[in-house]
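Supplementary Text 2. Reproducibility record for the structural model of the 458-residue chain.

All settings were left at their defaults, and a single model was retained for analysis rather than an ensemble. We include the record here because the model underlies the residue-level annotations in Supplementary Table 4.
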Amino acid sequence: MNQDTIAAIATPSGEGGIAVIRVSGDEAVAVSDKIFAGKKKLAEVDTHTVNYGYIREPDTGVRTEEVLVTVMRAPRSFTKEDVVEISCHGGFVSVRKVLDLLLESGARLAEPGEFTKRAYLSGRIDLSQAEAVIDLIRAKSDRAFRIALKQSEGTLSKRIKELRHRLVELMAHIEVNIDYPEHDVEELTNLFIKDKCSAALADIEHLLQTAQQGKILREGLVTAIIGRPNVGKSSLMNTLAQEERAIVTEIAGTTRDVVEEYVHVNGIPLKLLDTAGIRETSDLVEQIGVEKSRQALSDADLILLVFNGAEPLQPDELSLIEQLRGRQVIAIINKQDLPQQIEIEFLRESFGSEHVVPMSILAQQGIADLEKAIAGLFFSGQVESSDLTYVSNARHIGLLKQARTALTEAHQAAESFVPIDMIQIDIRNAWEHLGEIIGDAVSESLIDQIFSQFCLGK
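Retained model, structure tokens:
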């Protein structure tokens, strides 16, 4: 591991009450002491103490900032190295000045994610816990934050380690039978392998069943609000966002571009895309907007298809309904406060009764029914769960699927009485794929790629 002492700004850029500059490495205390003036040198203070003082220029002694400095000595720190955190006034100039003085005094600028990478390389956390740190930072809902927090504490790691331990025991059993074939009863051994593979497969399947929900809670549902002009799409966007996010007028074709907003519905994060009304038009700008709407429609995980209940279905709406068969769609029949002319039974037959929601967005009616329909579509109506071991990381999902394939092949081989030394190859492959989730036997390039996704200072 690189033993350089590293430094970076750990708080977001911009103006604020305070900012934090983090320093880590064998020389973290010595480097910080070169620019710190307090009652004691930092080398003399106790670990895990906060120390008041000033930042000064080493050459001239001129004070440049008033600070609080926290000292955390190895191994009782995030990186298991000596760590110093300098809290100064938040602001571009003050923060940059402190960082520059640290760099001039012997530290180097940290790479993105390098503090967390050092925590991983020192063995303080495994790779899945390190990746959960990214999820903590990027969490878009309380639920996603709690899941990421549990994973950073090692809930997923524990499940994976238990699985791998059972596979190691299975491989050890096979090794004994290979070394002492005279004691082997082939039929019993194959039955033992099948039972152990089945149990491991059941655990992997359980984890993979959480993958869609975990991905939604981690990244949010890309949700396109689609419909003809002036049916209430922008009003729905504003209602869900609880602010005037999109322009609403009685003039058809007001929305010309895709408007984005993150909202939470029943604990589910939605990335809402308010789109231009889909219709044939000669207006060049509106044509571009309609094309963007069609692209948003293609990319969406969930489609909120809005209709004007006071009008019969139009030919372009019938065409849209046909295009969306097989997609995740909730049909919203707006303007329930007006006399209804829409063919509601046709919509129920097309999308299912539970996916057709009558609403009056103007009167704020039907919002709870819409939230219930969204939760029912993706979470069987139940978002909360006592089990917070969700798999949401695409890398983890891919490795679990590879482990499932290897164990399935091992199970099938045991059923066919394939020689057990051949079966062991598939079991070892599954064990190795699971190991990659927590960071066992992963390439240096993959580690670099994962930590490059972090922000500076983390």
